[in-house]
Write a structure and sequence with these properties.
Rossmann fold, binds coenzyme A, single chain, alpha/beta, 25 helices, 4 domains, flat, 7-stranded mixed sheet
Length: 711
């Protein structure tokens, strides 16, 4: 196996390309790939390969790749699946850098072994594979369209990486009619070798690419993707559309490309953590691409709505709440800025209603006022078609103001609602790369996505919150359980690990007789709970083996005697080791805190509303680990129950810092102790002022780790 891999640049900027399976038959993909390369104006050398020889699109056809006396950077392969291995082998042996395998019929239909064989052969010779099961690659810098698309993309600043080839081909057509210019569009298909992260490595520093749009169905190496996406969003916006959100959708995605969709909640949280904007559908993603690519970075997020219609202004206000767009609300400043252009029956409050009688001049004055005001950072301008506004002038008014805002460094988005003339205006503006929308929600969603990205970018912090742990001691406890063929820890073992990690658990000890029971209770302090300890009694409550809230010595004596009597009656043969005396934990706000090793994304931490309603409320949120303390706090703030931690009805604020420490501790255990795969504290009682207590702790062990030990 060759250690050195070719520079990914040569996939996008090849000096020579070959097409194996090039055909003169215009019904075949092998013809269209060659035709697209030639008609797309590719400047490098082109070598069609087909044993029949001859000529395709004015280029001599070579019988075999070996016959080409030149160094080839990219080979596009369009022969049936059964011939692909031989084609790859000949390319690899010739020293080709990248094979772009368009052919279908591999992992996506269960032909996994053949796909592996192909990748292994390529890797042995230092060649990389794009695909298989892809449409190919389009790269604007080299004018290379090595795809079988029906048309050619418009050049521009958006790069698209798509897992679905057919969707990508559709996107080529759609972006062209939407005037969304592309710097590149690539499909990764089965991701047998190159994946999204590898392609991002090229696109992140590439100057022509201003924004990246990705369509994902499943992720294989999630940790690598997180690393690369985090690096990408520091430089440019990344928009991700991931399908397989629903259970059925996830199954469909798995059978489409042979990759698992994973938990959508986890994926969603991770994307946000990486600063990625997640779009719901292609339309929303493209709208964001157009708007963000055309907008300057906002100087702040105080936004003003300027409208000629009250209803549309109210709708935009609702949408602003949905998409987290902050509306500027200094009434005095708004009045001063917009009085001149607002009739008495209008409103200078935000939304600023310049009324249905507003024409071009009024829009210009209002937009100038917002542009020139230091505290107004962006505008959403709405227009409902009226006879008053000379519609012939609408597009030129929008274009002129868009230019002014771009030069002034503030974002401006227009929503235009009306008949034919309005629709024509939208088309004319789009042709000039000025995004104008016919729906208010679309416009506000765009503004929200812009703010979200720049908010993230301007607040990136690099720290990692971890804790020092005695991992050796923790691993020893876990290994003892594994030696007994157990993949879970007993309550006392889990508590021991919590103590090592400095997590407070209820005080407890086991009493073997009545005297010890009284002594333990007094040591722990009343009230206490008492539970029978017997491996022969699994359901302690059923056996009458549990007593709660014991307030004094006499109650302890009575409870001890009752428990022993009940349990003997319940199972006369049970071996009773004693009773566990534990602190009766004070009530507090109940959280669930967890950490686990995810097969795709590595260590994932979780926090949410705990107790018995976890499953019903589903008020949980996730992050990948490690993360910095600010992100831990963001995570806690994100749950719907966060106000409970701030204190309600006269309560003091709860120990949120203490809960944050727990998240970091559990994440650190999973990160550093490979034997442990899952930890969950539920409930973690969080108290007013200071103090948290892990009432119940569940720890699972890693099966993979164990099988490795036996190898
Ligand atoms: N070297 C060079 N040329 C070869 C060859 C080889 N080793 N083996 C076959 N060929 C030639 C064939 O002779 C044919 O040329 P011809 O038209 O002159 O006879 C050409 O390659 C194509 O082979 P053919 O057998 O006609 O296949 P095809 O064009 O019907 O189908 C694929 C090939 C790759 C298109 C098809 O197998 C496939 O995978 N289709 C799905 C592609 C897809 O959807 N991908 C995902 C996109 S989103």
């Amino acid at each position: 196996m060759k250690d050195k891999v070719p520079d990914i640049k040569y996939l996008f900027e090849p000096r020579a390309v070959a097409v194996i399976g090039a055909s003169q038959d215009k019904t075949k993909l092998g013809y269209h790939v060659v035709d697209n390369i030639v008609s797309g104006g590719y400047k490098g050398k082109i070598y069609p390969i087909n044993p029949r020889g001859g000529d395709i699109c004015g280029h001599r056809v070579y019988a075999r790749i070996e016959d080409v006396d030149d160094d080839i950077d990219v080979v596009s392969i369009v022969v049936p699946a059964k011939f692909v291995f031989e084609a790859v082998k000949s390319c690899a042996e010739k020293g080709v850098k990248f094979a772009s395998i368009i052919t279908s019929g591999f992992a996506e239909v269960g032909n996994v072994e053949e796909e592996r064989r192909i990748v292994a052969c390529a890797r042995d010779h230092g060649m990389r594979i794009q695909g298989p099961n892809i449409f190919g690659i389009y790269s604007c810098v080299s004018s290379l369209n090595a795809t079988f698309s029906a048309g050619c993309p418009e050049p521009g600043g958006v790069a698209i990486i798509t897992q679905s080839g057919a969707l990508g081909l559709g996107m080529i057509g759609k972006t062209a009619i939407e005037h969304l210019g592309l710097s590149a569009i690539v499909s990764v298909g089965n991701k047998s070798d190159l994946d999204e992260a590898d392609l991002l490595e090229y696109l992140i520093p590439q100057e022509e690419t201003k924004l990246i749009f990705m369509y994902i169905e499943g992720v294989q190496d999630g940790e690598k993707l997180i690393r690369v996406l985090s690096a990408a969003t520091k430089k440019k916006p990344v928009i991700v559309l991931k399908s397989g959100r629903s259970e059925r959708g996830a199954i469909a995605a798995a059978s489409h490309t042979g990759s698992l969709a994973g938990s959508d909640d986890v994926f969603d949280a991770i994307m946000r953590q990486c600063g990625v904007l997640r779009a719901e559908c292609v339309k929303e993603g493209f709208d964001w691409c157009k708007f963000i690519a055309a907008s300057p970075p906002p100087p702040g997020d105080n936004t003003v709505i300027i409208t000629n219609g009250g209803g549309i202004g109210v709708m935009a206000t609702d949408a602003s709440e949905k998409y987290n767009v902050a509306l500027y609300d200094d009434a005095a400043t708004l009045k001063e800025a917009f009085t001149a252009v607002t009739p008495d029956f209008g409103s200078t409050k935000n939304p600023v209603d310049i009324t249905g009688q507003a024409g071009r001049a009024e829009y210009n004055v209002a937009l100038d006022a917002a542009l020139n005001h230091r505290d107004m950072h962006g505008v959403m301008a709405l227009y409902c078609e009226t006879a008053v506004f000379d519609a012939e002038n609408l597009s030129s008014m929008i274009m002129e103001n868009s230019r002014k805002y771009r030069e002034g460094g503030k974002p401006l988005v227009f929503a235009v609602f009306g008949g034919r003339k309005s629709e024509d205006c939208i088309s004319q503006c789009r042709e000039q790369n000025i995004p104008v929308f016919s729906d208010v929600y679309e416009a506000v969603s765009c503004m929200g996505s812009l703010y979200r990205y720049y908010n993230y970018k301007n607040n990136i912090s690099e720290g990692e919150a971890t804790v020092e742990l005695d991992t050796r001691l923790i691993e020893t406890i876990a290994h003892q359980a594994l030696q007994q063929n157990r993949f879970f820890l007993l309550a006392n073992e889990a508590q021991a690990i919590m103590k090592i990690a400095g997590v407070e658990v209820p005080r407890s000890s086991v009493a073997r007789n009545l005297d010890e029971a009284v002594r333990c209770s007094e040591d722990i302090g009343y009230p206490v709970v008492m539970k029978v300890v017997s491996r022969d009694i699994i359901h302690k409550s059923d056996a009458g083996g549990v007593a709660l809230n014991l307030e004094n010595k006499n109650e302890v004596i009575d409870a001890y005697q009752a428990i022993i009597q009940n349990c003997k009656a319940y199972n006369p043969n049970a071996f009773i080791e004693g009773v566990e005396i534990a602190e009766m934990v004070k009530p507090g706000t109940e959280l669930i805190i967890g950490a686990r090793r995810d097969a795709t994304f590595g260590t994932i931490v979780m926090v949410g509303l705990g107790g018995i309603y976890v499953e019903v409320m589903k008020d949980v949120t996730f992050r990948y680990f490690p993360l910095d303390r600010r992100e831990v706090m963001n995570m806690i703030k994100e749950i719907r129950s966060y106000p409970l931690l701030l204190g309600v009805r006269g309560e003091e604020k709860k120990d949120i810092d203490g809960a944050a420490d727990m998240i970091i501790k559990l994440g650190s255990i999973i990160q550093n102790c490979k034997t442990i795969s899952d930890i969950e504290i539920n409930p973690l009682r969080v108290y007013e002022g200071k103090g948290v207590k892990a009432v119940d702790v569940r720890i699972l062990l890693s099966k993979v780790e164990r099988s490795n030990q036996h190898e």
